[in-house]
Give the backbone structure.
Amino acid sequence: MSSMRDFLREHNIHEVECVIADMTGIARGKILPKDLFLAGEHMRLPKSVLLNTVHGEQPDNVPYVGATDPDMICVPDASTIRVVPWATERVALVIHDCENFDGSPVELAPRAVLRRVLDRYAARGWRPVVAPEMEFYLVARTTNPHEPLAPPTGRSGFTEQGRQSYSIDAVNAFDPFFLELSAFCKQHELGVETLIHEAGAGQMEINFAHGDALELADRVFLFKRAVRETALRHGIFATFMAKPMETEPGSAMHVHQSVVDGSGNNIFSDAAGTESTLFRHFIGGLERYVPPATLLFAPHVNSFRRLSRFQSAPMNIHWGYDNRTCGIRIPNSGPASRRVENRVPGVDVNPYLAMAATLACGYLGMTQGIEPAAPTAESAEHVHGELPRNLEDAIGQLRACPALADMLGPLFVEAFCEVKELEFATFSRVISSWEREHLMLLV
């Protein structure tokens, strides 16, 4: 608490945002006056808040939190304290861990799920290193969810037309937004490295410096909010939907991952600098377990609109060297930076759960000695059907995988599936415009 006390004094902080991430990745918590935060009484929230669906409902939570809807204790992680740069007053933010009253972690909490996986690595003397790449769209502001989204207007007064991959001018069209976002990311200590324009109209990509998996998940969690807040200040919206526009490509969160030992050596390379057995087995684990883990990589109905044919997203679990048509890509690199890129996750994921899931798949491959198939040297765009086709299918595949339940926590997996089943049921009640257009007067 002393380090946080010093931080709040040095930055003249008046209030503290005490936040946790629920299963969707939405920030929940309380805003406390500085003095109340420093009084030492940890924030309490109902455990059931972790079970909220994206539309604010909850499944029957008795099997997961008990019949009395009890509290949990939210303990601040001092290493996460930051200034909130877009706040009108001097406000700080601290990410909290969720604990039971006996000090044990709350199994439903996404941050605890990732810690559980990282503890498995630590027990073997390993430490994962990750680097996420995040795509997102800037869109014109709208208050009507029944209208399709559209690209925003840039400095020229025009909206983007056609494909603008890696265009510098297309990024410069939104210079005021990106200059402020860059400043906010620096103040918020998010470690953002690279900005590029992706293929879609108004679609951007931000890359993060590689580092510790928990810290990167924290940064991604905070980055999404920073982007949305910055966009609002510039009269536009930013969206992390996996597939926000029918005619534009989807948005991904590709995760580069490697593993180092206690001396900091990359275990994916052997002493001679060639590919190690553990490297091959990590890939084998992704091949076997990414399909049943897809619910963590594609957690919403909209996610599967990205994971469909002819949408510039992998529908396969093939792997290949520098092959972007594969779900598992091995970038060109030297022995020290040898890594695996998982291209399946959408940007709509909860970053804690996506990191936990991809690392769990690789861990199972290494500990079970799973040999991968031969690498794919040609295009794999024609390969499809290796991943679940919809949310309901993904729920069933995760439920049927005891190895992933053991890695992520059986209680969490069952609760997460219940939350997603409720979301799917709610979505299935919606009558779409397509149905009205093609069925109303024709069937």
